[in-house]
Specification:
CATH class of the largest domain: Alpha Beta
Radius of gyration: 18 Å
Mean pLDDT: 89
Number of helices: 10
Helix content: 40-55%
């Protein structure tokens, strides 16, 4: 498994200055209007699903080079989503993830065989939940909160991961930004949650894994909670989340 420093760097490194260029200016809540009660929670995939086994497989595939390949793979994965969103050259997240992997292997001068490529990509179809995820989700559901995924994952990636993680029945919606043919932090991606729940945006909490996603959701107008499982610094984007928690267990306590 890649060491903690390398894993933190691959996640933190994905947040480039190009994020702000993807975003429009969202409507704001009227001055003096009290915020709505939170009635629903939209989750990025990774506060719920643990990505670390994917990068452990990278190290097993490329001993001594795993941290380098993982960092480049993760960074290019999100840079490609932003570049394609800004340029209007959409490709779905599965293809972007594979393109980023091929680039990362080439940059590290390692042999990415067809078998290794399939194995590493299949990690995104067999994700398991973080240890606290299912009890926290059940607590939120029991408190009457409506739950949804709102992820860059393709619909097939979401279906596979929900089945692998045994999350069936917990989520009202599994929303893929593929429906809008764009990626977070484009406001059109976050709008999917508003449309699905049929609620005002300030009645929806958004649970982000990455700091840039927390900033994008906050800009959009969601009540935003950054599930900062890795303890990375806050992004300097001028959009502080409404709350920062280290786990879904803490988020459940904050919302219920």
């Amino acid at each position: 498994m890649p060491n903690r420093r390398s894993f933190l760097s691959l996640v933190a490194g994905a947040a480039g200055a190009s994020v702000a260029a993807c975003l429009g200016t969202p409507p704001k809540v009227a001055p003096g209007r009290p915020p709505s009660r939170i009635r629903a929670v939209a989750f990025d995939a990774f506060p719920v699903l643990d990505p670390r086994p994917i990068f452990a497989r990278v190290e097993e595939s490329f001993p001594g080079k795993g941290a380098e390949v993982s960092a480049t793979w993760r960074a290019r994965q999100f840079e490609y989503t932003w570049l394609r969103s800004m340029s209007g050259r959409y490709a779905d997240f599965w293809h972007i993830t594979e393109d980023a992997l091929v680039y990362a292997a080439s940059a590290a001068h390692v042999d990415l065989s067809a078998a290794k490529r399939r194995e590493l990509m299949d990690g995104y179809r067999s994700l398991k939940p973080w240890a606290d995820a299912i009890p926290a989700l059940q607590a939120m559901r029991s408190a009457g909160l409506r739950l949804a995924f709102l992820s860059n994952f393709t619909p097939e990636m979401l279906r596979s991961s929900i089945a692998s993680a045994e999350l069936g029945g917990l989520f009202e919606h599994a929303l893929s930004t593929d429906a809008a043919r764009t990626y977070k932090p484009d406001p059109r991606a976050y709008q999917l949650g508003v449309d699905a729940f049929a609620l005002p945006r300030d009645a929806i909490a958004f649970a982000a894994f990455a700091g840039w996603d927390a900033a994008g959701a906050k800009w959009f107008g969601y009540r935003t909670f950054w599930v900062n499982r890795l303890g990375v610094p806050e992004e300097r984007l001028g959009a502080a989340p409404d709350g920062v928690v280290p786990s879904l267990a803490e988020l459940a306590r904050a919302l219920t």
